Amino acid sequence: xxxxxxxxAEALQMMGVFQVLPRLVVFDLDYTLWPFYCECRxxxxxxxxxxxxxxxxxxxxxxxxxxxxxxKSPTPDIAxxxxxxxxxxSMFVTKEIFYSWQNKTDHFQKIHSSTGVPFKSMLFFDxxxxxxxxxxxxxxxxxxxxxxVNLGVYKEGLTKFSLKxxxxxxxxxxxx
Length: 176
Ligand SMILES: [Mg+2]
Fold this sequence. Notes:
Layout: H1 4-16, E1 20-21, E2 24-27, H2 53-62, E3 66-71, H3 76-85, E4 92-97, H4 105-115, E5 122-126, H5 129-136, E6 141-144, H6 151-167, E7 174-175
Parallel strand pairs: 2-3, 2-5, 3-4, 5-6
Antiparallel strand pairs: 1-7
Helix pairs in contact: 1-2, 1-6
The chain binds magnesium ion (MG).
């Protein structure tokens, strides 16, 4: 098992390098935080996360950065049961888990309404390119995940966010 504290320390060190960080980090669930479709599982199962997820979550919390969920799972009851079982449910400022035929535009409108965070101050991770394309058009820095969230893809996200930030003149971000 991965050492959560070690991953957290590495993530915190990584975040220390950037001049600007997102105010809110949004995660998909299936094949982003955990390696399965929760609709194919039973509520009685014991779920597990990708190895680096908890460490990264704790680092975000340590830096005072909010986290949220945007999932199109058709079984929100199983998803929320799993989040509870994994003891990470209370870490999210908002959880938008509902099915949609489209990409996650509606999810992000709701997240924006409930948090007040501008789209350009958000960073988003998802394994579905359709969602990445749609949500990035809203101004959210969006990162395609191929093997779940890990330190590598997390660094890629922070880098892309800060480059985009530097390119824009409007500085409304969470400056350090
Ligand atoms: Mg997914």
